[in-house]
Amino acid sequence: LAPLVVLATTAHNGVMLAAAVTLLLVPSRVLACLLSRLFPLNSENPAPEELQKKLLPRALVYSLSASVVYLAAYPILNAMFGTSLLTLGIYLPLLVVEPLLTYRFGRVQETVRKAVSKGLRITVGYALLLVLLGCVREWLAAGTVFGVAVSRPVLPMASMPAGGFIVLGVLCAVWRALAQKRKAYLTKEARNLVDVHSQKEADREQ
Predict the structure, then answer these.
(1) pLDDT below 50 — which residues of the chain?
(2) With contact defined as beta carbons under 8 Å apart, do 54 and 173 qualify?
(3) Nearest-CA neighbor of 135 among 145, 143, 150, 147?
(4) Against a cut of 0.85, is the pTM above it?
(5) Number of Cβ within a 10 Å radius of residue 160
(6) Which of 53, 65, 142, 201 has the fewest beta carbons under 10 Å from its own?
(7) Conformation bin of residue 65: beta by default, left when phi > 0, alpha when psi is -120 to 50
(8) What CA–CA distance (Å, rounded) separates 24 from 177?
(9) Which of 167, 119, 120, 114 is nearest to 139 (CA)?
(10) Alpha-carbon distances, residue 117 vs 30, 64, 110, 113, 138 (angstroms)
């Protein structure tokens, strides 16, 4: 949550963070997937002895692999955004221990294909959320989007971490409500199709 509530205060910050996540997440996930085969977990519920022996080295593998990718990605980010990166402060290098990158070390071994597939999906979703949250918070706090005035400030505290939690909570609630409506609509449509099919079968039998 730190990049979302602390740093994504403007649309520009959201874009910089989205670019950083894009450069970091998939390569570090694939690299960690390959390196973690040195300490494989082949069971969903490994024995405590196996966990004790393998979790620490796997955690180090994931964090260190993300650090290596970060060292390669930073020059690219610097070329893209220059001194603007300084506004992200310590939270940019802290992305190497972002749970999106490191939480997997305690799970079963991923395949490279799965690492790429999941990495891309998570990257797209998280990057879109960073940009959206940055735009909404900038509009609420300053009345601008990418520095262009669109209205008067609505909620000045949106630029603060507390405001970030509030805005993020509202966005999550709206998303969940839309997702539930979509799920209910699809369920209703599926039931209607089943009913129509059953009726046709009944008509044929008659």
Answers:
(1) none
(2) no
(3) 145
(4) no
(5) 16
(6) 201
(7) alpha
(8) 31
(9) 167
(10) 10, 22, 11, 6, 32
